[in-house]
Amino acid sequence: MAVTVKASLGKTKYYTEVVAGENHLITDEPIDKGGQNKGFNPFEILATSLASCTAATLRMYIDRKEWNVENIDVEVELENFPLTKLAVFKRNISFEGADLSEEQLKRLHTIADACPVHKILLNEIQIQTKFS
């Protein structure tokens, strides 16, 4: 599965319009980095990908099992250590309105790790760049 996004940045520092199909979003940098803080910064977008994919993957499984879970909360903290080339994603998952057994929670942990974005982040990654 391939996806395509296009980011366009004009002369307004770091205010970037991103388009994917019919969907649009804005990214920006915080004020202390010279931006206007009008949208998620790129690191927040990366963490958002893992958080939203995890929540959707869990919801699909929970619905298929017909378990009663009112809300799934996924919080992702991303720490980047450029000098050691290490990035650490800390993912905290909680369930509201649910009475899940230890066995169910164990299974949901496995399902969370099966989220497609989680799998991509664990794979070898290549970035191929072309100027046109």
Automatic annotation (TrEMBL):
Keywords: Oxidoreductase, Peroxidase. It is an enzyme of class 1 (oxidoreductase). Its EC number is 1.11.1.-. Pfam families: OsmC. It comes from the Bacteria. GO terms for molecular function: peroxidase activity. Gene3D superfamilies: 3.30.300.20. This is OsmC family protein.
